[in-house]
Prior knowledge:
Layout: H1 7-26, H2 36-42, E1 43-50, E2 57-59, H3 60-69, E3 79-91, E4 94-105, E5 108-120, E6 128-137
Parallel strand pairs: 1-6
Antiparallel strand pairs: 1-2, 3-4, 4-5, 5-6
Amino acid sequence: MSTSPSLFERAKAEIIDLHRYFADWYNATDHNQTDFSRFEKVLGEGFRIVTPDDGRIIERDSIINHVRANRGCFHGEFVIEIDDVRPGWEAAGIIVVTYVEAQFRAGAWTRRRSSALFTESSSMPNGVEWRHLHETWLQAPETKQAQPPK
Length: 150
């Protein structure tokens, strides 16, 4: 007997899949095969992000326009790794998930902890929709040169 993935498992898959999408979208060598509608679709109406830089709140339409405008802006120099994905509060079809996102770009690594709020939505690729995201730096961005993982 097969059981369907839990809400947490679907949210975790969405976090990993969307960040793979970002790596493809932002890397000049991969962006031509990347379908922008995948990103637009999974951000629920009223989605907002709290940025790690200055705590600014960015609304759904602004973040969509920002991502769209930066297609292919890196030349193989952008990597994202997701780690430490943990379930938080959960209630009927709603879950908060935390995770650590490491990014390599412009020769340096940065790390941030994110808290994301998801709601169930059977029409989404992983059965969940992003509703809110809050990112916090775990460190100041590195200034030294570093090498991406092989």
